[in-house]
């Protein structure tokens, strides 16, 4: 099956950082005063559009070729006032087809055909992270602002079967200044002959309620990220839980004196957005001799004084947050720090007993191990069980990092952990507690030596999360935003950051995870080992799910044989599901959120066996889902 075309557009990616201030932006055509400038008081170098005339235009235009395929355009926009009209447009041959603008009355807006659509208020001197998904095939567009879909299926302003350029400008009749930055366009091909129905409707964590999909917000205890910067994106992502690190050393800087201000703000904000914190009790505290390390790889407390202080802090923590937090994790990656399993088991039991004493219904995880360390897990469980304390453990958490998220070895080790749980701690569960991939080369931390891009990162996240969810494993995306370690940035965030840790924009991985969270929620159950056959010459990964109330299915499929790449070329395959349950199947590309009808000619059913033909598959998850399971 061919894909829709032509798709001759080249991806446009412009940050303006390498342009000398005061000069025009290479590759852009300017009318009036449109030059690259540094913004006073910030680290931004951006394209400035300064209009001092009420009769002459100020615009900047860049071409990305001509395509009739879907165009995804991301950019940041900032106005220096709320009294001028500033617009960014995607243009076809007849003019502006899609517009996102700031009005002279302080409002963001777009158009549905000729009708203006209000998108909310805006403030001066503030960047807005804007994403437009424009579909010439249906002449419709969606608009996202700061990670939130503000409008869907807006009709084009002017008729266009293809798009080819992006233009930004200040209205001729107004005077004012605006800045444009991080302009990114990509082209997404669509299945030929499969009508697009729309896109998956994002839902907030509060709207979703419960799910097995969580997100990481670690290192706030060391100030490597800025909670206030990413907070608006947290609930919008749709993950219903967030992993936090308790930060003993940050809370108790003076012996016996707790300052909870920093953590109160974070916990209260998360819960207000419908996101339940999963609190990790770590690290150590240097104000006590033998207090352990206060960061990654640090030792657990060892001296009598430090252990007593640890006990007191844990008790105070549970008492303070027990009405908002029920899930706890004890320490982070003790095996990485070289803490013997037996030593950690004793420390776990000591700490878990204090948590349980304060909160009888608490859910407690350990050991939060680096990788999937089967021998360490076994030694830990043997020690815990031998002391009669396995009842204190509700789950094993682990942190696997592999270039290929579908690596067979990974899930073989997971099965070994399951067997150990069944033997030594029956009833305990599994949680993938920390896992992610960078979005650029040279990143700090695991997998940082590989040549990542934002596209390959998005695929990696979606494959690992979908695979875990399909196995019934609670799973965490690490991390909500890039992390600023002292020596280097860890770019595993779903959000790109500035040098001051403020949010620059939501990466493609953010929107992909947002789609997955909105589909695979608590109303869906996993169908591990979902059977299938295929004519694909490349082995496929298939994970099955079903709605709990109706049994209607959602089946994820992708090429999981290699590390994700940067190609979006799809191969048509036949997929047969002997135990399928579909009344009206649709096709969903999780990475883009696009939903397509599967024509009757491309699927058939005989008894419970469903056969789908010409299914476009690549190295990122796509779903065959009953239409009743997808919200548009």
Automatic annotation (TrEMBL):
Residue intervals of the Glycosyl hydrolases family 39 N-terminal catalytic domain: 253-404
Protein name in the entry: Glycosyl hydrolases family 39 N-terminal catalytic domain-containing protein
Pfam families recorded: Glyco_hydro_39
Keywords from the named record: Glycosidase, Hydrolase
Domain of life: Bacteria
Provenance organism: Streptomyces enissocaesilis
Hydrolase recorded as keyword: yes
InterPro entries: GH, GH39_cat, Glycosyl_Hydrolase_39
Similarity field: Belongs to the glycosyl hydrolase 39 family.
Source lineage: Bacteria, Bacillati, Actinomycetota, Actinomycetes, Kitasatosporales
């Amino acid at each position: 099956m061919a894909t829709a075309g032509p798709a001759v557009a080249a991806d446009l990616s412009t940050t303006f950082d390498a342009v000398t201030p005061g000069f025009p932006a290479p590759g852009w055509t300017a009318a009036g005063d449109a030059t690259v400038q540094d913004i006073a008081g910030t680290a931004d170098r951006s394209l400035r559009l300064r209009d001092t005339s009420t009769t002459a235009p100020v615009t900047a235009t860049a071409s990305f070729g001509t395509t009739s395929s879907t165009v995804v355009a991301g950019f940041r926009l900032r106005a220096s006032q709320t009294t001028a009209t500033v617009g960014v447009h995607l243009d076809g041959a007849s003019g502006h087809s899609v517009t996102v603008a700031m009005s002279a009355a302080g409002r963001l807006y777009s158009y549905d055909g000729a009708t203006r659509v209000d998108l909310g208020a805006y403030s001066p001197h503030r960047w807005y992270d804007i994403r437009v998904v424009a579909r010439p095939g249906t002449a419709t567009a969606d608009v996202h602002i700061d990670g939130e879909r503000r409008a869907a299926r807006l009709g084009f302003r002017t008729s266009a079967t293809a798009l080819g350029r992006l233009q930004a400008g200040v209205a001729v009749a107004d005077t004012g200044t605006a800045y444009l930055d991080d302009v990114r366009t990509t082209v997404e091909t669509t299945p030929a002959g499969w009508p697009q129905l729309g896109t998956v409707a994002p839902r907030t964590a509060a709207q979703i309620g419960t799910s097995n999909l969580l997100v990481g917000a670690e290192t706030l205890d060391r100030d490597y990220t800025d909670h206030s910067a990413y907070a608006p994106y947290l609930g919008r992502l749709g993950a219903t839980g967030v992993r936090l690190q308790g930060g003993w050393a940050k809370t108790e800087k003076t012996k016996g004196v707790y300052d909870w201000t920093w953590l109160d703000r974070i916990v209260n904000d998360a819960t207000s957005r419908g996101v339940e914190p999963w609190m990790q009790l770590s690290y150590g505290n240097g104000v006590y001799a033998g207090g352990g390390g206060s960061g990654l790889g640090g030792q657990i407390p060892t001296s009598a004084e430090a252990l007593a202080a640890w006990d007191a802090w844990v008790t105070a923590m549970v008492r303070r947050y027990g009405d908002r937090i029920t899930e706890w994790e004890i320490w982070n990656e003790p095996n990485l720090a070289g803490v013997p399993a037996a030593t950690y088991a004793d420390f776990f039991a000591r700490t878990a007993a204090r948590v349980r004493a304060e909160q009888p219904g608490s859910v407690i995880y350990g050991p939060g191990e680096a990788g999937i360390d089967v021998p360490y897990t076994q030694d830990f469980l043997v020690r815990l069980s031998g002391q009669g304390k396995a009842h204190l453990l509700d789950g094993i958490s682990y942190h696997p990092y592999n270039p290929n998220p579908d690596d067979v070895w990974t899930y073989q080790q997971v099965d070994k952990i399951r067997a150990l749980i069944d033997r030594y701690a029956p009833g305990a569960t599994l949680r993938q507690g920390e896992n992610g991939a960078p979005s650029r080369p040279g990143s700090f931390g695991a997998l940082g030596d590989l040549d990542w891009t934002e596209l390959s990162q998005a695929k990696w996240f979606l494959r690992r999360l979908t695979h875990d969810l399909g196995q019934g494993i609670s799973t965490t995306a690490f991390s909500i935003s890039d992390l600023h370690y002292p020596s280097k940035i860890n770019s595993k965030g779903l959000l790109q950051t500035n040098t001051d840790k403020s949010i620059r924009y939501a990466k493609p991985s953010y929107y992909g995870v947002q789609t997955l969270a909105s589909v695979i929620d608590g109303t869906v159950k996993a169908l591990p080992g979902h059977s299938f056959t295929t004519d694909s010459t490349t082995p496929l990964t298939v994970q099955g799910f079903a709605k709990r109330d109706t049994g209607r299915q959602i089946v994820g499929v992708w090429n999981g044989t290699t590390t994700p790449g940067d190609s979006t070329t799809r191969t048509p395959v036949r997929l047969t599901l002997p135990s399928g349950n579909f009344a009206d199947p649709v096709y969903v590309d999780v990475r883009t959120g696009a939903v397509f009808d599967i024509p009757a000619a491309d699927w058939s059913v005989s008894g419970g066996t469903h056969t789908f033909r010409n299914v476009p598959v690549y190295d990122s998850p796509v779903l065959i889902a009953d239409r009743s399971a997808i919200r548009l």
